[in-house]
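queue> holo job accepted (zinc ion)
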Amino acid sequence: MKIFCIGRNYIDHAKELNNPVPKSPLIFMKPATAALTDGKPFYHPDFSNNIHYELELVLKISKNGRSVQEKFATDYYNQIGLGIDFTARDLQDSLKDKGHPWELAKAFDNSACIGNFVDKSEIDVRNISFSLQKNGQVVQNGQSSDLIFVFDYLISYISGYFTLQTGDLIFTGTPAGVGKIDIGDNYIGYLGDKQMLQCTIK
Ligand code: ZN
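queue> job finished
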């Protein structure tokens, strides 16, 4: 299982970190060992003092595919869920300054918290609202209609470089409102008004 992630896929988030809005998708990956599932807690690692939460819509790939045309891309995923892309922002900033890859900041163990999924047929994929509560307060609010690169385009683009395999996941990018996690925090993700993800920081 591979985890693809998209950076800067919402204009308001690109702006909050003073990044340019990309002209093509910014892709990075996390290994299978990054997956944190079944509502397990996230144990704060000590290599970072500034880990951020990033709530994202996640697509589950349901069919193997290579160089998929955008008009057929919808056939390649069957479920949508929520995930948190935990990011060691301090490491990422220093890696970015040096022009180095982001793996240490993005792909570490348990950095991909994965919640529940719903069948794509149950929702209007172009109009999904999602939100994150931190300790009972809403900190992120997103809309799939605000995506710079839509799901079908992402599937087509990624599959031009990497063979998609059943079970692969695509984290589609975070809206504005990212912030630092602290030990003791509790995060709950909602798809519409349905709770889909829960994660405690230990
Ligand atoms: Zn992200």
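queue> The helical segments are 11-16, 89-98, 103-106, 151-159.
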